[in-house]
Amino acid sequence: MNNIMNYKGYWARINYSDEDKCFWGKVEELENDLILFEGETVEELRKDFEDAIDMHIESCKRDKKEPKKQYRGSFNVRIKPELHKQAANIARTLNISLNQFVEMAISKQVNHK
After folding, report:
1. For 103, how many CA atoms within 13 A lie in the half-sphere containing its CB?
2. Is residue 8 included in any domain, yes or no?
3. Domain assignment present for 24
4. Domain range holding 99?
């Protein structure tokens, strides 16, 4: 089961609250904003999600700010030391940097979908 909803390049995790008897979602990848939405049916949830995104985009245009989180292209990764050593050795044999090796591995997985 996929608990992700997409609209205009935005995505959100979908949850269900048994207490409130409704679905709810939170839009991910926003820098300084929080967008929550809900609905008792999937159709209501979808409409509230799309309306919230449209309002967010309009608000960002009005305020002249970036609507989505901007990725820098760098992040820290924690892996087992032995895996780190193996990756570094393979990168060395390929005559590329460890960063290039990791980028290739991630790209292969992302494009493999």
Report:
1. 7
2. yes
3. yes
4. 81-112
